[in-house]
Amino acid sequence: MNVSFLIRSTTPGDAPAFHAVMMAAGMDPRSSWTRTTVAQVEWSLVNHGGFVAISGERVVGCVGHRPDGPATLTLNKLAVLPEARGSGVARALVAAVEEVARERHFERVLLAVSQFNLSVIGFYEKLGYAVNGAATYAFASPLSPPPVVMTKQIDAR
Ligand SMILES: CC(C)(COP(=O)(O)OP(=O)(O)OC[C@H]1O[C@@H](n2cnc3c(N)ncnc32)[C@H](O)[C@@H]1OP(=O)(O)O)[C@@H](O)C(=O)NCCC(=O)NCCS
């Protein structure tokens, strides 16, 4: 099914709906993702920010971003409700983060893929990301196995 949607920047009040989309993603229970709390999401939205995808009145997708130094913008918490997948929602959310990176003159977007979610690597490759063995994810959970790091260069317009 093709879902129509719009993308907007988050406000702190989006935290419960953002968290609900994350929890509906079906992530492996061993992943630190599944232990994320609403309070942690709210902290991210207050201190860093993100985007939600809205279809009708409903939040159907989410993504966060957070700088790591002057050159790198990290992308995190990307999720789309199962029933809204396959309509380009995630592609649009990732593009919104890349636009933030471009506007703020970051050189690259960096993200971490959990060892329990390796099947998503092909999705990011499709969007121009590549596994980068030389890069590290600064905000990785110390309780989880080291993630696979992927990066994409952001060219100035
Ligand atoms: C991965 C996820 C975000 C994709 O959301 P989506 O809205 O269905 O993705 P899109 O519709 O924007 O897909 C964009 C393209 O990627 C492709 N794609 C989607 N999932 C893919 C996958 N797992 N592997 C390879 N390609 C994939 C789509 O077919 C589409 O290709 P096309 O434009 O050529 O048709 C969604 O499946 C999800 O929420 N998964 C669980 C959470 C998760 O793994 N998040 C990532 C954390 S690192």
UniProtKB/TrEMBL annotation:
This is Ribosomal protein S18 acetylase RimI-like enzyme. Residues 5-155 form the N-acetyltransferase domain. Keywords: Acyltransferase, Ribonucleoprotein, Ribosomal protein, Transferase. CDD domains: NAT_SF. The lineage of its organism: Bacteria, Thermotogati, Deinococcota, Deinococci, Deinococcales. GO terms for cellular component: ribosome. Pfam families: Acetyltransf_1 (PF00583). GO terms for molecular function: acyltransferase activity, transferring groups other than amino-acyl groups. SUPFAM superfamilies: Acyl-CoA N-acyltransferases (Nat) (SSF55729). It comes from the Bacteria.
